[in-house]
From TrEMBL:
Protein kinase domain mapped to chain residues: 45-349
UniProt entry keywords in alphabetical sequence: ATP-binding, Kinase, Nucleotide-binding, Transferase
A GO MF term: protein kinase activity
Lineage, opening ranks: Eukaryota, Viridiplantae, Streptophyta, Embryophyta, Tracheophyta
Source organism of the structure: Trema orientale (Charcoal tree)
Binding site for ATP: K75
Pfam families assigned: Pkinase (PF00069)
GO cellular component, one term: cytoplasm
Coiled-coil stretches: none
Superkingdom assignment: Eukaryota
The name this protein goes by in its record: Tyrosine-protein kinase
Amino acid sequence: MESKDEAGEERNVLRTLKCPKSGKLILHIKYSKTDGTFSRFLTEFEEQELIGSGGYGSVSLCKNKLDGREYAVKKIAKIPVVFQRGAIEGEAADIEAEVDDELYEFGQIIREVHILAQLDHPNVVRYYSAWPECHLEGYEEKDEDYGKSQEGAEEKCGESKEGPCLYIQMSYCPKALESELDRLRSNPVLAIQVITQIIEGVAYIHGKEIVHLDLARDNILLDKDDTVRIGDFGIAKYIGERSPKIGGGKVLYLAPEVIAEEDKEEKGEFIASTKADMFSLGIIFYEVLVEMKTDMERCETLKKLRGGNMETVVDRMETGDNMKQLLKRLLDKNPESRPEASYVKDAFVPPIITELIGGI
């Protein structure tokens, strides 16, 4: 099937690939004769549902048409024109050198791709691929066997009518920690297993000289077997990197030293350190272990953990002394007093597990 532009020239072409034995449709390939592009997303994936969306774009659950497996595909819309064609090249630092704000923001997105590509661990979301796509302007699908599903895909996560976009293909995890807290609190053994896996994942990330900076209960994912997968490296930095302090967002999880003061015009800077992630883990572990019945109670309790009443709040927990000691170390306002993830894994986890087994 071909469509023509106003000048009557061939513009967009649809090609189909069928099984030689059964005749069953395997793939549809879209491309433009005028610029040689085609949509890899629409060719290879069938979108199942929208998982989440935000200012960056959206994440969808997608089924690969060839291998039949489910993946999470993140789409970042409105990428700069310089990335409309070809492979993603260059380090984020090269992009950040540009004065243009749009290029700087996209540099942060490219950084996420580069960081994901370095990570290969059972407790980190797996990265498969990333690719930019161009806008196929004026495309109209009229294939009777395929038009409806293809049209729907375009409206959800397919080619953007607003310009080029970037796709990131990752492993799919059906659950986030925030939706599983009640189940974990009722099962102490599973709760400690999850905490241990989080520590192992963070220790691995830090071993790659990467600081996550956005560890929170909605970025800690679980697969169908309850294996932890740490995701969303959108604001991750390399250890020692200077960055503007962070304003807004998940302030309840952020270490005090990385938060911008609201009453000051200049945000100031911080140097990325693994100790910032360790503070976030203290908040997360408390949430895993302690029930807070309302959002207001949760907000007030976590504020106390961040403030001068931290030790009092921790001492009231119905848990062993080793876990209390760990939380006090993690939530210390002095970054230098917080232990590294590798130390927590070796020095704290074994006695905590022993303590738990003894209490069952």
